[in-house]
Design goal:
Layout lengths: L23 H37 L1 H9 L13 H30 L5 H37 L12 H18 L2 H10 L5 H6 L1 H15 L5 H39 L1
């Protein structure tokens, strides 16, 4: 007598991806763990940064010393508060700690969000994180090697009956504003990516409204540029215009892939 084979209930179901399932409290515990790990990495990075800070200060003051030398001024920076230099070392150590810990922090963010994502979403998030870091670092490099020397040369070109006394603390705040501002400006393609992802803008819309985009870019450049001359503003605008067109390309890719998915879904029906 033959018996019909029964389906094995323990056999794996078809390979379908589902996002990770976690309770609210499990999410809180996981988030707490990632935050603690990130803070520990920043603390470790700050301790390393404390050792590297005196050498790093010699690097960040080079553009200012060069500009002072070209203006035939005394190549020295001063601090005007008894704890001024110590505060600068502490502040710089913390910033260096954050920079050195940023890969680990991004990894912690990835570990927190990855279990809840599908495979294609994980690939998109990975590309997003790397693109964000790359563009931000590109903005810092552009600011330090191109914008900062030009700005400082312009500012030290004004001479009068008074002698400039350059405070190292104020100089640090100044370059931090310039570099962080450019780092954020270089994230423009990421902003356009999200706007395109949610259907707010399209490549056609961006190209048709290019003249208004130039106007907005000019206003932003005028606000961010720390000097009043037109040449500095134009140098500020040049990468922003290039990033805008890069954003148009990113938008085209996003819209094209969305249309392909919709077409594939329609054919499957």
């Amino acid at each position: 007598m033959t018996t019909r084979s029964q389906p094995d209930s323990s056999r794996a179901a078809p390979d379908t991806e589902t996002g990770g399932q976690m309770t609210f409290f499990e999410h809180l515990i996981e988030l707490r763990k990632r935050i603690i790990n990130s803070l520990i990495s920043i603390a470790v990075g700050a301790m390393i940064g404390w050792v590297a800070a005196p050498h790093f200060i010699n690097w960040i003051i080079k553009p200012m010393l060069k500009a002072l030398g070209e203006a035939h001024l005394d190549q020295k920076l001063f601090y005007t508060h008894p704890a001024g230099y110590l505060n600068l070392l502490i502040t710089l150590s913390i910033y260096l700690g954050i920079v050195m810990a940023s890969p680990w922090i991004l990894y912690q963010i990835w570990l927190f969000v990855a279990p809840a994502l599908y495979k294609h979403e994980r690939s998109a998030i990975t590309g997003f994180l790397f693109s964000t870091v790359f563009l931000f670092l590109a903005g810092l490099a552009f600011g330090y090697f191109i914008m900062l020397p030009y700005i400082l040369r312009f500012l030290t070109s004004f001479k009068g009956p008074v002698v400039p006394l350059m405070s190292v603390n104020e100089y640090f705040d100044f370059i931090l504003l310039v570099l962080l501002g450019l780092g954020l400006v270089f994230e423009l393609p990421i902003l356009i990516f999200f706007l395109s992802l949610f259907g707010i803008v399209t490549p056609k819309f961006l190209l048709q409204n290019f003249r208004y985009a130039i106007l907005i870019i000019a206003i932003v450049a005028a606000i961010i540029t720390p000097t009043p001359d037109a040449m500095t503003m134009l140098i500020f605008m040049a990468p922003m215009v290039g990033l805008y067109f890069l954003g148009v390309g990113v938008s085209w890719i996003v819209v094209r892939r969305r249309e392909q998915r919709l077409a594939a879904t329609a054919e499957a029906r």
